[in-house]
Amino acid sequence: MKLKNKHKLSKIPKLALVILAATLAATPSSSQTVADSAVPNTGLNIPEELTIFGKNDPNVRRATAVVNGDIITGTDVGQRLALIVAANGGEVSEEEQQRLRLQILRNLIDETLQIQEAEANEITISPEEVESTYRQVAQQNFKQDIGGFETFLRSKGSSANTLKQQIKGELAWSRLLRRNIQPFINVGDEEVNAIIERLNASKGTSEYRIGEIYMSASQETAEQVAVNMRKILEQIRGGGSFVAYARQFSEASTAATGGDLGWVRPAQLPQSLAEAAVQMQVGQVVGPVSVPGGFSILYLIDQRQILTADARDALLSLKQLSIAFPEGTTEQQATTKASQFASATEGIKGCGAANEVAASIGAAVVDNDQVRLRDLPAALQDTIANLPIGQASAPFGSITDGVRVLILCGRDDPQTANAPSFDQIMSQLENERVNKRAQIYLRDLRRDAIIEYN
C-alpha cells in the first residue's frame, strides 16, 4: 500500500551513473612491422610483416564494468538481456536490445552492490532458497516445466546461472533490509486504526490492483527516460511480458514481484497515478505517467469495490469436456468437427449426464470444484457468470488446443468481503518505511563504490 505523496514502495533507483559507451571499433586490418632483431627464431615461419584479420569479441569474457573488484562481463549482460527477449517471445528489435543493454548494466551494478553489502554483513542465501524461487519463476513467468527450463534458457542464449544470480541478489537484499532496517521501524496502533476507519468510510468505492514499472529521472534526464519508457510500453503493448520488464527495469521495490502493487485506493496514490488509474480498463497499460522523481507505466490488473462482495470471487464447480484435433487437421475439418461437438454438448441436461455424452463422442472429462470465477480468462468470465446450473458453455478453443466446453455444476457466491486485518495493515506500513530507508541505503553504497568501465 502506498501513502499519498509518499510514492515509492520504492526500492532504490537503479544506478544513475553516466556510462561511457565506448564501443571498441577495431579496424578491419592493422599492419605491424616487426624489426628483425625483435623476432625470435620460433621455427613457425611467421612473416615479419603481417596483418591481423578480424577482431576480438568484446562480449565474451571481457569486463564491461568492475564494481569494487567484482567483474560484470558482456556475457552477463547478454544473458540477462536474453531473459527479457525470451519472456517476450523473441519480439524485441535490435535497436531496442541495444538500449536495453545499458539499462541491464545499471541493474547489474546495483545487484552487485547489494550482494556485496549482504556478504559484508555475513548474510548468506542457501542454494535451496534460490532453487525454490527459480522453480516459481520457471512456472509463473515462463510457463516452463522445471525439467526442461535450463535447456529452454540455453536455447534462448541465456542460462540458469544468470537467473539464479538475479534471484540471489533479490533474496540477499531483502534479508539485509529485514535485519538492518526493519527492527528500527515503528508503526503505532493509532496509525493502523486510522486506516481501518478510512477503509470503513470508503466501503463501496473502487480500489484497484495495479502493476507498475517506475524509473527515476532528474530534470536533465527526464526526456531520455520518458523516451525509454515509451519504447518499453510499445514492447508490452505488442505482446511483451509486463512482469519480465518490471522485474528487470522497475526501480520500485515491487520489481521482484513483477511490479504488482497489490490493491490500492486512488487516495493512496500520487495524484497523477490516481487520475490515470480511475480511467483505465482492466488489462490496459498506460504511460509514461509523470510522478515525483520520475515516470511510471501502469497496468490495471483488476478492480473491485472496497469491503463489498465481488461476484467474481464466486467459487465454481466445473466440468470440462474436450476433444483434440489430429495433427494436420485443416481449418475446414476443425470447423466441421467443432460443429458436431457443439451439437452433442448443447443438449446436456446437468452434470450427471455429461460423462455419458462425453463417452459417446470420445471427449476427455476434467472436474474441478474449486475454480474462482475471476481466475478464468476474461473472455469466459461473463459467459460463465451468466450460465445456469447444469448448462454447457458455447464451444471454444483452437486447431492447436482442440475444442472444449465448460459445464457449470455448482456455484458458491461470496457473502461478504473482509477488510484487511490489523496485522496486515501494520505490515504494509512497515514495508513502506523499510523501502524508504532502503533507498537511502543503496544511494550510500553507490556513493562509496569504485566502478570502472571498459
UniProtKB/TrEMBL annotation:
InterPro entries: OMP_Chaperone_SurA (IPR050280), PPIase_dom_sf (IPR046357), PPIase_PpiC (IPR000297), SurA_N (IPR015391), Trigger_fact/SurA_dom_sf (IPR027304). Residues 1-31 form the signal peptide. Residues 205-302 form the PpiC domain. GO terms for molecular function: peptidyl-prolyl cis-trans isomerase activity. This is Parvulin-like PPIase. Keywords: Chaperone, Isomerase, Periplasm, Rotamase, Signal.
